[in-house]
């Protein structure tokens, strides 16, 4: 009997404790909202959290994936979208005038052509993309650190590379790609180049060499054995899947990090980011693949010339102050070694929180509307600049998206600010008809 009573007592206190914490937890939201803690809703599920209070540099905010806060709370000040999951059929509409929209989109221009167009971008107040013009640029998202550029961990000396060329019959150039039909049509370029200089191709695109079996399917990873393989090559083809200002991926940084010279195509302004002004061979400096091949053949017969491209490895030289400053200011990390710094998603959340807190508590004025320089990629171009290159599919996507961006902007920003997908597609078709899209692309519908 005594024991049962004690047990009962324990049970009752336990329930009280649970109830107490429950009240504490729920009132937390209300309590902090009173202290001007903004609520920020991830509209596209991303973090998996329904309640995440974060204290940032300037403000503190509650992040939630619970969409009911968009309409139910006046403390909801911003709504965040992950670019690749952004869908015109699923939006928080009608939009309240005090709702800021934030866009996180670090991915390739080929994924979401909508954001190539200013009328879609201007729906957002703050962005974080690879472009240096975005509100919180992620441009160097594939570079671990300046130290990784000067580290000799994987570095293979010129003498040793020369020996591998002669005795192991390695080609001077490595190509490693398994996405074979991107907007840039890079394979067409490589095919042409390989007529004039040997290329070892390990990926499924233009494959002529086998990867060791344990490395298959991980071409984009940083497996140490893969890095060792790349390091053996004098040159590595670093051709992005699409062209956009500041769209620079591991295709550039991986060879630079291991000490193979990148033959680069992608961001037209890549020179702005490389360690020294002679760290890459830039495809755009040559009018044909043959000219580029001749240049590379020339470097191959001149070790002094070759080593000019490796001053970051040989002499630890990184003279690009823009690169150094960007890395000094970057708060986020990119891999497990940098876990303590948080990811760019963490940084993006606090960036939004701080901007919003400042706006509401101090400035209370100012205009924040994203524009073309936040993403805005051009009509897809091919690496091989010839009229025979067939790039129609991607070009068509781009033009279609321009119509979608136009209609989306109008429907969201003009009352009533809500629409059905029938409204949307109907308006897009009329718009594309007006702009001669169908005549140019020969389609009745899409
Ligand atoms: C919270 O915001 C209101 C106006 O929105 C302001 O009057 C008040 O002073 C703020 N409180 C704090 C603690 O900043
Ligand atoms: C979302 O929040 C509402 C209101 O605060 C709540 O009633 C609901 O249970 C929450 N939903 C989830 C999935 O947490
Ligand atoms: C690189 O910079 C050095 C010194 O700043 C300069 O002398 C050289 O001409 C530059 N090279 C190129 C290719 O721009
Ligand atoms: C946020 O963006 C919307 C859409 O462009 C705009 O109407 C609103 O004024 C912007 N908010 C601020 C504070 O600039
Ligand atoms: C684009 O927006 C940025 C702010 O994000 C602003 O500094 C820049 O002047 C704008 N560019 C144009 C062309 O309006
Ligand atoms: C592509 O080639 C055409 C002529 O063949 C030239 O007018 C144009 O400037 C080239 N574009 C690029 C980006 O090189």
TrEMBL record:
Annotated localization: Golgi apparatus, Golgi stack membrane
EC number(s) from the headed UniProt entry: 2.4.1.-
Membrane topology: Single-pass type II membrane protein
Chain ranges of the Fucosyltransferase N-terminal domain: 35-137
Ranges of residues in domain Fucosyltransferase C-terminal: 173-322
Top EC group: transferase
GO terms for cellular component: Golgi cisterna membrane
Keyword Glycoprotein attributed: yes
Domain of life: Eukaryota
Pathway assigned to this chain's UniProt record: Protein modification; protein glycosylation
An annotated Gene Ontology molecular function: alpha-(1->3)-fucosyltransferase activity
Alphabetized UniProt keyword annotations: Glycoprotein, Glycosyltransferase, Golgi apparatus, Membrane, Signal-anchor, Transferase, Transmembrane, Transmembrane helix
Residues annotated as transmembrane: 7-25
Family listed: Belongs to the glycosyltransferase 10 family.
PANTHER family tied to this protein: ALPHA- 1,3 -FUCOSYLTRANSFERASE, ALPHA-(1,3)-FUCOSYLTRANSFERASE 10
Stated name of the protein: Fucosyltransferase
Source organism: Armadillidium nasatum
